[in-house]
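Structure ticket #2291
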Amino acid sequence: WVECSDPDRIKAAEQMLLNAVTVADVEIGDFGVLEFASAAEAILEISARHPLRLEQARAIERKFAKTGTVDRLLHDQKITINHYCQVDYISPERAKAFLESTSGSSTDIVVDQIKCCTNRVKFDSGDEEEKYRVILADAYYNTLSQGHVSKEDLLKICFQYFIKNAMLKRLDSKFALKDVCKEFPQFEADIINMMISDEINNYAN
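Resolution: structure written out below.
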């Protein structure tokens, strides 16, 4: 959903920021794939961590001599193709599958953005409506989301995690999501693992 700034705003930013470098061109070069056992594994793992153009995914197919891998991943709903700025990009579907699997659960979580990094999270716990104000800084959002989901969806995933792991009673009504990791070190690792591995489907079930 992010759009490029117009050229005039970019020029103004360059004048205000000393030693600024504008990155305007698409990166070039091939991805190293020797660490991966298959074309499918390479495509899923690389696209989980880095923008992967459709043409680059096809090149990975060719490196493994596995033509048709992208089409099979699309058929199996393990990836989707997003069209952005006239370019097709590969995106893994794991986090979306988790959200769809929990959307019909008894806990309907609503996230409203209050300010840039502050969000209101509401849901019905059965006896009463729970409300939290959660600070989610951009840097920590990027750490947890791994490029898979929006801030709203990430917060929904985190609160599903809190509910399943009986963590709500230990959370303040206003807190920074990054601080949760200090009290629950496994939280951050679990969320990141769900974003980059098939464990997200097992967790949802």
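Closing remark: Residues 34 and 42 are 9 Å apart (CA to CA).
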